[in-house]
Design goal:
The protein is α+β, with helices and mostly antiparallel strands. The protein is about 40% helix and about 25% strand.
Length: about 350
């Protein structure tokens, strides 16, 4: 395994392991270790621009939506759990990238940036939405850039204007700001907004961009941005993109996770699908022994419908995270208020369970 970063990156935002992601964690024996880091369910308060609350969404609503087979963890805790599971079984090289890829019918030859080479039966490119592996073997043109930006980063200490063990969320035309305040080292911030020129916005950096887009808000937002000023490099700050490919492999090179099917943060299933994809790929390779083409074909046939569905849900979810007008904000508030009614929660649960099948 080679990783471009010089060392492990154990920070990150909150991710939900539900559906296929939870199933994969269970099959891989990761649930005991991940459960230690489970953040559980918490109350969410929808707020106005100045931070005053509009209404509260009880934790029971999230329980009704996610069900019992769900874990909420920070990305860093998921990374640590996975690293501890494989660290003694796999060679991991940090500060290393793939320089070139050559393959024939029997092997793939990979040259690395440190001057070494490796011959293997299969190369798995799990290098994200901006995958260099994808570009090297399949060319460009598969990334679909959308007019949104997203920023997410951990908070080392809770912000004062967010009640303990809860989250506050502001949703306005074209933007959302959410602050999760659980405890020291267990708090985070999430921002997303519509932007006509994401590339130009990225060049400004996260502090300047978020200050311009959210500087008028109250509540915990100013404190979160001040926190970001101390460590801007610790933020995930990127344009929102999806990856749409006719196939996820060619010969003995296969793409995995965001490199193959990025669904965006709007889908809420990125980490879950990546974990499920890896688990199912390993299972397919085991079943087919040395027949890699058959294993890759079976794996993609089984997983692609789920990835396609999540991408479609993410495109619809953009209206939720970046509503185009105040009317859409009002309609969203109305929907969320309805979901908080006890009689509606069961319907939401059944609907989500049906969508997860």
């Amino acid at each position: 395994m080679v990783e471009r970063a010089p060392a492990r990156r154990s920070s990150g935002y909150l991710v939900n392991l539900i559906g296929p992601g939870y199933d994969a964690a269970e099959r891989l024996g990761l649930l005991p270790a991940l459960s230690v880091h489970d953040l559980g369910l918490f109350t969410t308060v929808l707020v106005r621009a100045d931070g005053r609350p509009k209404f509260t969404v009880p934790a029971a609503v999230a329980e009704a939506a996610l069900g019992k087979r769900a874990l909420s963890v920070f990305r860093g805790d998921l990374e640590s759990t996975l690293y501890e599971a494989v660290g003694n079984h796999a060679e991991i090289r940090f500060g290393t990238t793939v320089a070139s890829i050559d393959q024939d019918t029997d092997h793939v030859r990979v040259a690395f940036s440190d001057g070494t080479t490796q011959h293997a039966d299969l190369l798995v490119g799990a290098d994200g939405v901006h995958s260099a592996t994808r570009t090297a073997v399949l060319g460009s043109g598969f990334r679909v850039d959308l007019p949104y930006l997203v920023a997410a980063f951990p908070l080392t200490h809770p912000v004062p204007d967010v009640p303990e063990s809860s989250a506050t969320t502001f949703i306005g035309p074209g933007r959302t700001a959410a602050i999760v305040n659980l405890s020291p080292q267990r708090s985070s911030a999430f921002f997303t907004y519509r932007c006509p020129d994401p590339a130009a916005e990225l060049s400004r950096g996260p502090v300047q961009a978020l200050t311009a887009a959210f500087g008028d808000l109250g509540g915990g937002v100013p404190d979160a941005i001040r926190h970001l000023e101390k460590d801007p490099a610790g933020a995930y700050f990127d344009a929102v993109s999806q990856v749409a490919m006719p196939r996820w492999s060619t010969g003995r090179v296969v793409l995995l996770g965001d490199a193959a099917w990025c669904v965006t943060l709007f889908a809420g299933h990125g980490a879950a699908l990546a974990l499920a994809g890896a688990d199912q790929l390993g299972a397919a390779l085991q079943r087919h022994d040395n027949d890699i083409p058959a294993a890759l074909s079976e794996w993609e046939t089984g997983l692609r419908p789920e990835a396609t569905k999540r991408q479609a849900l993410a495109r619809r979810g953009m209206l939720q995270y970046a509503p185009p007008s105040r009317f859409h904000v009002w309609m969203s508030d109305l929907t969320i208020r309805a979901i908080t009614l006890p009689g509606i929660r069961g319907l939401v649960r059944h609907s989500i369970e049906h969508a997860s099948r």
